[in-house]
Amino acid sequence: MRIRKTATWMVTQAVVLLTFLGLFAVSQANPGDRLGINVSPLHKITSSDPFIDIFKVSRGWITSCEFNWKANVPIDPGCTKKTAFNTNESHLVDLDRNGWVRSLPTRNNRAIFTTVNSIWDMPSTFPLGDYFITYVGSGDITVHGDLTIKKQVPGRIDFTLHSTRRNLRIHLGTVDPRRYIRNIKVIPKRYERIYKTQQFNPDYLRLIRPFNALRFMPWQNTKDTQLANWNERTRPDHAHYNNNAGMPVEVMVDLANTTNAAPWFSMPHKATDSFINNFARTVKNRLKRGQKVYVEYSNEVWNMMYPATNYASRQGLRMWPSAYAELNPGSRKMRLALNYLGKRTKDICRIWKGVFGGRRNDVICVLSSYAGGPTMGEEALSCPLVGGGPCSKFVDAYAVGPYFGDYIARIENRNLVRRWSRQGGAGMSSLFKEILHGGLVKDEYPGGAMERLIQVRIKPNVALAKKHGLKLLAYEGGQHLLRVDRPHVIHDERIFEFFSKANQNHKMSQAYSKYLRTWRREGGGLLMHFNGIATINNHSYFGMLDNVEQKSSPKYNALIGFLRGR
To answer: Once rounded to an integer, what is the mean pLDDT over residues 428-435?
Structure first.
């Protein structure tokens, strides 16, 4: 009897151990090629709250002047009511190489401002409670907002943040040029024991750790950056990371290492070869050995909304001045941009693979184009103006953005969607019936969002990638009910609110699960959801989670379920 009991106990323990190991394997899903995320944009980074030191994500120094509101006269010469908080003279602030304020102007200086502030764009969900500020140097430093100062001594301020109603603001009134204030850190009290050795918020890590890859395009500020030279980059010891040059590459690699995820980088459209070489070398020296790294040129170089596309068309015109002269100006600009995209992607791949040398297979070179226009992808991949054969010979993967649902908000369907937005639960049911099954919106693909996705954005691109011997990836993906393109721009706030609520509705989980299975079944590889943790509101609803303290959501649950094979 004792032998039987012991055997039963051993079997039970074995099952428990195997179950634990299985769960561990799921939680450590990386590295893999199923699913990743785009990190949240810099202007929404306080939703994701990725760093323990929240000063890193505050906005850079804003210049202020003093105004006597009671007497309605300026205290500082030239100060007005309109400019009292922001004189727009940030370019005149005397900064050291790391962005710390070395001195402030006097009232007789040519500048209007006499003080500076650093502020945060805080959503209502930002974590409240006890914080402390540390710094070195001397001067007049104060903290403002809906808060209570608990203790203040030279080098440290303890406070309790009660709400985000008045935001959060650090004010420098005076600075000692001989020992100016620097190394400011703003730390949640609960992380006091670990902030000196850990840079990432444990809550943030918990939420993103399951994903196979992290696309850092938003953190790099790729859409707007003017970064070209290596000495212009943001370094890890810089005061603020929320600037035009984007995050330090070292910090992005550290996050990838910490979460065991493959990083995906977007090279700035103006970046020099020297910049790209240094960037690649930094990644090689810092990234875990054996980990993959994805690299592409800029972001959506087919999209005329972005500076990179216009830059690429100008470069193309300079290189091939007589090419496509028979086309109309718009088509010609696009063809030239796509050829330059192919050429620059080829250049970038050569540099990265050369830097990685014997580890060159760890570099996945990606060329991305428009999911709904395979002819544009063909132009970039074949790059007939570049010479030396198709550019696809030098890349490893072709990527598109296979979003679903954007046809629903087309202008010809607007009255129907407007009616749904006023029908409460019945209208929401109609929306998801159309997404999942179709039949309610007049469309050439009556099976709904997934049939349209397959026919328009997956099958043609699978065929194109196969033609060029490449993998098909998704640099972005997810729902895209929002329309910002003419003539389909949405102006009705009720529709905005309707789509915002749809993104938080439990049926979105079902839609996402079907979407992800469809993409995988039809031949798609790694899909990078757009985006990670970002506040969902009436005008922005791409985030998988609303804030870093949210444990689950319909989207997030579906994404994690897909990773776990459910």
So the answer is: 98
